[in-house]
Design goal:
alpha+beta, 7 strands
Amino acid sequence: MRSPIILFFVLTLVSCNEKVAKGELESSNSGTIDIQAELASIEKTRQTFMKAVKEGDGETMGKIATSDIKIISPGSSDWMEMYKESKNQGPFPYDSIIMSPIETIIASDSIAYDLGISRVYYTNSQGNVVELKDSFLAILKKGKDGTWRLHREVASSNVTD
């Protein structure tokens, strides 16, 4: 049962990659999607998020997430220590984040995924800045206002550079 599911997933990714490489993707309602414009819009959301984290701007962070966001954070001991020690609370308890996307795929006119590596920084109870890395896979949804928002994220402390 696992093999057909894995095969389906791989074929779906290959199919999406071929369309993205051509710079066009069929939209369900309007013909084609301007991939470069959508990638730029996703980058704007990413930059807005990184700035909001650094500034501790929870209101902006809330505006670039869907109302039903789900996040699975890394569960390693160093990440658990950050959640315990960080002065910031909530789903983003760090002082700053640098996101480095490896692959961003526009799956449709309203769904995209972003795969990459993040470096997060937080200040521990001794006052030292600690860096943690993670790999992430984020699903983004485009709102009616044209803004791409974080909808789902799964992150792992296993990082391959």
